UniProtKB/TrEMBL annotation:
Protein name, UniProt field: Glutamate decarboxylase
GO molecular function, one term: glutamate decarboxylase activity
Enzyme class per UniProt: lyase
Catalytic activity: L-glutamate + H(+) = 4-aminobutanoate + CO2
SUPFAM superfamilies: PLP-dependent transferases
Gene3D superfamilies: 3.90.1150.160, 4.10.280.50, Type I PLP-dependent aspartate aminotransferase-like (Major domain) (3.40.640.10)
Length: 458
């Protein structure tokens, strides 16, 4: 009986078929390869990616502890939509959004309704759809035209809201942010809302800068509009980041279901919920704010369970990771993790503020995210895209990009502090920023600007 090893098993690794040739980029290989060969090719190519923990552009979590990785490994085959096959995973999903309803101060968490999603963008889509369907129903009952819905939001809104308006035929109405009004704060709302407005989006943690929009002030402005016009306009809070920060770091801030006009809140489990991508959540203050025609029933333990996510098959592992994190950290653990991240953000922003070249847009005192811009008149030899490129050479991804409409002439640079950026690493980053800024300041002639592009897209 032959004991000859499989073809190629004894061949030196990088001379094996597949690894000794250039892999086809667009055509599936004709023949199979050794598992080790396929794995090595994938690992070799992904070495060209950046170091995720040095990526200060993304809000998405890039670190979890070893026990979480074990939870992930034991559950990555679970399909969230298959509630009959995985009833306990479905029950855990239910527990998680009820925990969030309580965290967000729902008057009666048992009267809320919510769901997990692939990410906060899907959660926003569901929140927007609920606003649209509720508005349409009200207009039809009143015998009014329901064909021209609009949604009011700041010009600094994340692109998922532009997608929502595009995909679901809603007119977007943008309130421009300015130096005087750096976030949506109720200013300009009377000029934009009307009988066709399905709602107002308030962002807890603007993607461009990390600042909170003023939910309570927005609600007060809408109260005044209702008093004068009769229009009762709800708010959806896009809490992709801030809904998992504010309850722990700013517990007295009124932004959540304590503000009665807030109908729904969405968040990312995979951002400051501290879970690997992709996971989002959306919760409605009362069941009635989620129209019945958006809910489908699926078989569950011999009965039925409601489902209303846009996706069908999707991973259940991230839901279990969220439950693990809730159990592992609890309220005080989340508070400690986020306070540490904010301490790092405030340390970095204070250090950058000391450099003559820069002015802060904000300092990281909302979510642990802040932005800065080049001081007017400081130099004509370089810009923030040059600093972005210099830092990238050292391994750091610190994006520069233009601000939104009405401020497109202003370029900012932003740092997102996540769990995993220690104070020690932050000190290294600050030293590199100081070094590269000094290098650029020492230039005696302008740097080329051809081919410059934003390091982040919103």
């Amino acid at each position: 009986m032959s004991t000859r090893p499989a073809d190629g098993a004894l061949t030196p690794q990088f001379t094996r078929p597949g690894e000794a040739t250039i892999t086809s980029r667009h055509v599936m290989p004709r023949q199979e390869s050794l598992p080790e060969t396929a794995r090595q090719i994938v690992e070799d190519e992904t070495m060209l990616d950046g170091n995720s923990r040095l990526n200060l552009a993304t809000f998405v979590g890039t670190w979890m502890d070893d026990a979480a990785k074990q939870v992930y490994q034991s559950s990555f085959d679970k399909n969230m939509i298959d509630k009959d096959e995985y009833p306990q995973t479905a029950a855990i999903e239910d527990r998680c959004w009820h925990m969030l309803a309580n965290l967000w101060n729902a008057p009666d968490a048992e009267e809320t309704i919510g769901t997990s999603t692939i990410g906060s963008s899907e959660a926003c889509m569901l929140g927007g759809l609920a606003l649209k369907r509720r508005w349409q129903k009200g207009r039809r009952i009143a015998g009014a035209d329901a064909s021209r819905p609009n949604l009011v939001m700041s010009s600094a809104v994340q692109v998922c809201w532009e997608k929502f308006c595009n995909y679901f035929d809603v007119e977007p109405r943008f309130v421009p942010i300015t130096i005087e009004h750096r976030v949506l704060d109720g200013h300009h709302l009377p000029e934009l809302v009307d009988e066709n407005t399905i709602g107002v989006v308030a962002i807890m943690g603007v993607t461009y800068t990390g600042m909170y929009e003023a939910v309570a002030e927005i609600a007060r402005a809408l109260d005044e509009i209702q008093a004068s016009s009769g229009l009762d306009i709800p708010i959806h809070v896009d809490g992709a980041s801030g809904a998992m920060i504010a309850p722990f770091l700013q517990p007295d801030l009124l932004w959540d279901f304590r503000v009665e006009r807030v109908h729904s809140i969405s968040t990312s489990g995979h951002k400051y919920g501290l879970v690997y991508p992709g996971l989002g959540w959306v919760v409605w203050r009362r069941r009635e704010w989620l129209p019945e025609d958006l809910i489908f029933d699926v078989s569950y333990l011999g009965g039925t369970m409601p489902t209303f996510a846009l996706n069908f098959s999707r991973p259940g592992a991230q839901v279990l990771l969220q439950y693990y994190m809730f159990l592992r950290l609890g309220f005080e653990g989340y508070r400690a993790v986020h306070q540490s991240a904010q301490d790092v953000a405030r340390f970095l922003s204070a250090g950058i503020a000391k450099l003559d070249a820069f002015e802060l847009w904000n300092d990281g005192s909302d979510i642990p995210v802040f932005a800065w811009y080049l001081r007017h008149g400081h130099t004509s030899n370089w810009n923030l895209y040059h600093l972005q490129d210099r830092l990238r050479q050292r391994g750091w991804l610190v994006p520069a990009y233009p601000m939104p409409e009405a401020l497109t002439g202003l370029t900012v640079q932003r740092i997102v502090v996540r769990n995993g950026l220690s104070m020690d690493l932050a000190a290294e980053l600050l030293a590199d920023i100081e070094t590269e800024t000094a290098y650029l300041d020492a230039l005696t002639s302008p740097m080329p600007t051809e081919g410059q592009r934003p390091g982040f897209h919103h």
